[in-house]
Amino acid sequence: MMLIIKALTQAFNTAVIRFSQSAWELIDNLGLFPANERNLPAKVESFSSLSSSIQQVFHHIVSSAMQSLYEQHTQLKSSLGVIHPGPSSGVAAIEQRLYEVRNQARVLVTFAGLIPMSCGIELRSKIGRMEAFMV
Known about the structure:
This protein has one domain (2-133). Helices cover 77% and strands 0% of the residues. The protein is elongated and about 50 Å long. Helix 1 (2-29) runs antiparallel to helix 3, helix 3 (52-82) packs antiparallel against helix 4 and helix 3 (52-82) packs parallel to helix 5. It is mainly α.
């Protein structure tokens, strides 16, 4: 019975991870955010070339992207508790993905801090808290 519960938990976690990962991929494919620190200056500069209507709602895009990364991180962390370490367990792959998600979040937060977003301190704090929970 415990094996079934663990398998179901892992299956549900995988489904949520895939949903969050798909959401991130859609946002990332727009090319609005830097892929890494080296891309920060170019993306900050390209932000100013976006239409003012996009700039006005850009904080919603950043918030959604961060939420997607946060959900991925949360689910990946919880799946580590379900998997028993072993040569074919996938722990190393999950830890690698956690590293990638944390790095993407860090770059996103840095980017958000470098651009003029029309949002209040509350949203900036929320984004910062999500990043902090991923550390």
